Amino acid sequence: MPAHSFSELHTIPFYECNVNNRISIPMLINILILASEHQNENLGLDQTYLIDHYDVGWVVTSYSIHINQLPRKDSVVKMTTRGTSYNRYFAFREFWLHDQDGQELVKVESIWVLMNEQTRKITPIDDTIIAPYQSEKVKRVPRLTRPERIESGADVSAKEYQVRWSDIDFNGHVNNSRYPEWMLDSLPMAFLNEHEPGNIDIRFENEVKYGNRVTSSVLVDSSDNAKIKTVHEIKSNDVLSASATIIWKEIKAKGNDQS
Amino acid sequence: MPAHSFSELHTIPFYECNVNNRISIPMLINILILASEHQNENLGLDQTYLIDHYDVGWVVTSYSIHINQLPRKDSVVKMTTRGTSYNRYFAFREFWLHDQDGQELVKVESIWVLMNEQTRKITPIDDTIIAPYQSEKVKRVPRLTRPERIESGADVSAKEYQVRWSDIDFNGHVNNSRYPEWMLDSLPMAFLNEHEPGNIDIRFENEVKYGNRVTSSVLVDSSDNAKIKTVHEIKSNDVLSASATIIWKEIKAKGNDQS
Questions:
Q1: pLDDT above 70 covers what percent of chain B?
Q2: CA atoms within 13 A on the CB side of B160
Q3: Is B163 on the interface with A (CB under 8 A)?
Q4: How many other CB atoms are found less than 10 A from the CB of residue A118?
Q5: Would you call A43 an interface residue with chain B, using a CB distance cutoff of 8 Å?
Q6: Which of A248, B198, B242, B259 has the fewest CB atoms within 10 Å, counting from its CB?
Q7: Nearest CA to A77 among A107, A37, A46?
Q8: Does the domain formed by B145-259 have CATH 3.40.640.10?
């Protein structure tokens, strides 16, 4: 029996877009998480139920995001997700974004763990929690590509951020979508206006809380001009919070065109 | 003939909410602007059309926001807007947010001007641009309550922000919804977790651009404990960008309850 797949349509409003009128990376992550939350609800296993009955919650540890095209403002996209497979500690979830013609715009692979809400420690995945997803029980879930690390002494740029109240989630930690926001903002505006990510491998290591300061460091590798690569690290008090490798492509069609 | 009224439904996803699972003030502003943009499109007068045919765009100068109740995560709200009246230079637009039972959650009054896209100067409102809204031509549009100013030497708290790439709009300026975000963030987390705005008078003075630093100052007046008042100023290079007066109320029902 294949894993239970969940789809819904979403129209992208202006406030989910960047200056190029395409969905921003933080909002791309948010809308996909929304689809998975709706699947959880649909299967009777939403956040509140998991806390009330098991004292656990799902936490994402890494995403591998492949972008063919970022959807434009006002476009309607179909979001699809399924909990593809799992083992004792890890669940492998996939996401797709398609346009109205069925073209694949974005594909995301992700790894999740169940965290105890009191101890904030990883707990084994209870079969009763995963059964409704019809996920395949496997020995090993797929390994996502690990983001590169910045070698010490490398020529990095860095920006500092104070965590804002609005960065904080219902659970008291920084919302995952803020890490890519800090990562992208470490790059110059001129670059961001002309390029967009084609591939993002991002990994979340340690939670950041209100009041913390974070440093967003980036190493730009433009040795291959057609395929600029950036390596990112978010640290708080010298502890790694998140890391990412992004492969960029030039934006060809800009402005208000319909492409 | 009464002004043309436009309504649509909106479901509030988790990423439009604050830590209390209620819609955040920046997102409240965003969804209402979305409704007015849809009305503009509906009447054939969207942003692109105004730029292409008149080289102008609508710019909001002030909001007066009255909040009975901030809608919760996952709730469905009805957004309504109309361009109520106008004179030579100013347009008065109203917004309402209702719940599914028809209860008024939020009422917003706002003043708009037309700005020339090249000169960034205010231009008279062309009758052909406003006619489809069936707005009433008046001698004086209603005056919204002006936010108070912070007297020099007052006991203020202040935080500094670097404008981020993600703060910037399609038009190259800071998105209006960022000003209330900076204003609220200048208050302590403990206060924000326990209180929400009942009334916000906010006025936008000067546009802020990428690369600027802004200072968000707040004066807290808790002389009337049942009705805490805060006065806010956002300045960039000592020039006033936005000001606001907020009247607060205590949050009674918290967490995941259904009230």
A1: 97
A2: 8
A3: no
A4: 8
A5: no
A6: B259
A7: A107
A8: no
Report DSSP letters for B164-182, one per residue.
PGGGB-TTSBB-TTHHHHH
Which tokens is A34 given?
């929304």
Q: Binning pLDDT at 50, 70 and 90, where does residue B254 land?
A: low
Distances (CA, A) of B162 to A212, B199, B206: 16, 27, 16
Per-residue pLDDT tens digits for A130-155: 999 999 999 999 999 999 999 988 88
| Residues of chain A below pLDDT 70 | 253-259
Across the interface, whether the CB atoms of A185 and B166 are under 8 A apart is answered yes
Which pLDDT does position B195 carry in this prediction?
95
Q: Does B15 touch chain A (CB under 8 A)?
A: yes
Q: Residue A165 and residue B172: Cβ atoms within 8 Å?
A: no
Q: Which of B30, B187, B189 sits opposite A210 (nearest CB)?
A: B189
Architecture of domain A1-141: Roll (3.10)
Superfamily of domain B1-144: Hotdog Thioesterase (3.10.129.10)
Closest CA to A230 of A211, A215, A243: A243
ipTM: 0.93
User: Which chain B residue has the Cα nearest residue A41?
Assistant: B74
In chain B, domain spans? 1-144, 145-259
> Which residue of A lies nearest to B15 if distances are taken between CA atoms?
A30
